[in-house]
């Protein structure tokens, strides 16, 4: 792996801007003001976040110079969406192309289908679809009997949406049918599904159950169950929080925590083998909950949001964090996402705010770029069949990533030892 330009960045070096929700003073700090989800559009031109109390704010990116942190204002490009329910998940649809726009104009269902869409998952299980350009609702998707927690558009350029719910199911929706066709329902989890992620080649989907501690892989070609990923139960009792595929689809990261610390496991989704783990057992009891993990667009780093720190950045295989913010127990982190072009991470907090952080940039080695390009279209089994030296095989299958255990002598500092 390549090294970062800086050994570690502090919060004062990395914080770009904090946008604060314009909650009425009577609602400030009360349940329902949390930012449960943040997302950038696939072209990086829009950003959306749940500011609490059923409100989603959509702003154009990059942010304007006069944005000083209070949302929203009267700028005509911004949209304030009133969903009427607590919003737990959101996701931008694929960015429409000119060719697709021409095809959609000739389509029978709706000439406005070429517009950029935003899906929002509500507390009552309804998924509301919005037109980003106008800020108007388009239609609702109904079927979930619990909170629609995580929403992901399959990255195939089509309007196919995956949703996970506290009703223990995953659903796959064809948005061109506007909710008038039954969705594909995937069952198998025994309790809440806290997160789901789709592989970049659109062949697989991963889901994690918060309380049943199950990591499941599903086929998106046949809509069937593939396997459980086993080997993460190093604790008597723990909870699963998040998952994410690497940009080349060759790694799956899952995040879990217990009373004595949190950890991230890296898996080979093709074989089900656990490749490496990052373990942090230095936190105080009850303050070590991990909320979200996300791969950077180049696949070199993982963004980590925990209850006691707004953001940490880990370079795969490196013992210490390349960036971590100061401890902040008053504004717990809940979610994060990278800008699709890299360089910036957005994090959402329990008080309904969102922060933008400048993250360390690395220049990927040519070997990493070659591996990522190869693995985007070649499975582990196909790599293993190649007549290549064992050392190269280990590199191509990410078998060279060692286990890492974070060591911090003093949790009150913002730098690891």
Automatic annotation (TrEMBL):
Protein's name according to its UniProt entry: Uncharacterized protein
Organism annotation: Dallia pectoralis (Alaska blackfish)
């Amino acid at each position: 792996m390549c090294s970062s330009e800086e050994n570690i960045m502090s919060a004062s070096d990395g914080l770009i801007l904090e946008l604060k929700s314009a909650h009425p003073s009577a609602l400030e700090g009360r349940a329902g003001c949390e930012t449960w989800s943040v997302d950038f559009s696939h072209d990086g031109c829009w950003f959306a976040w749940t500011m609490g109390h059923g409100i989603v704010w959509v702003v154009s990116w990059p942010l304007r110079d006069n944005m000083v942190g209070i949302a929203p204002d009267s700028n005509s490009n911004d949209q304030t969406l009133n969903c009427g329910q607590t919003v737990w998940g959101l996701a931008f649809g694929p960015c429409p192309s000119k060719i697709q726009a021409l095809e959609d104009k000739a389509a029978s269902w709706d000439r406005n289908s070429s517009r950029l869409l935003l899906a929002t998952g509500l507390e009552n299980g309804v998924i509301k679809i919005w037109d980003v350009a106008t800020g108007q609702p388009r239609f609702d998707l109904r079927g979930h009997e619990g909170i629609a927690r995580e929403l992901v558009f399959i990255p195939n350029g089509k309007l196919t949406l995956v949703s996970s719910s506290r009703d223990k199911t995953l659903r796959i929706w064809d948005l061109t049918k506007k909710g008038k066709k039954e969705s594909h329902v995937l069952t198998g989890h025994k309790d809440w599904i806290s997160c789901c992620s789709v592989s970049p080649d659109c062949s697989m989907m991963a889901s994690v159950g918060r309380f049943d501690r199950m990591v499941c892989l599903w086929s998106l070609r046949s809509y069937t169950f593939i396997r459980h990923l086993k080997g993460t139960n190093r604790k008597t009792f723990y909870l699963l929080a998040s998952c994410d595929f690497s940009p080349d689809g060759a790694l799956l990261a899952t995040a879990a925590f217990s009373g004595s610390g949190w950890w991230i496991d890296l898996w080979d989704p093709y074989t089900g083998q656990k490749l490496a783990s990052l373990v942090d057992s230095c936190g105080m009891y009850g303050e070590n909950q991990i909320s979200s993990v996300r791969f950077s667009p180049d696949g070199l780093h993982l963004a980590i949001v925990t209850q006691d720190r707004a953001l940490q950045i880990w370079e795969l295989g490196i013992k210490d964090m390349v960036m971590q913010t100061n401890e902040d127990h008053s504004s717990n982190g809940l979610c994060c996402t990278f800008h699709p072009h890299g360089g910036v991470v957005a994090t959402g907090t329990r008080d309904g705010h969102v922060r933008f952080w400048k993250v360390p940039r690395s220049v990927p080695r040519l070997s990493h770029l070659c591996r990522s390009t190869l693995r985007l279209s070649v499975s582990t089994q196909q790599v293993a069949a190649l007549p290549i030296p064992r050392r190269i095989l280990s590199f191509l299958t990410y078998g060279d990533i060692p286990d890492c255990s974070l060591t911090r002598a003093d949790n009150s500092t913002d730098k690891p030892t």
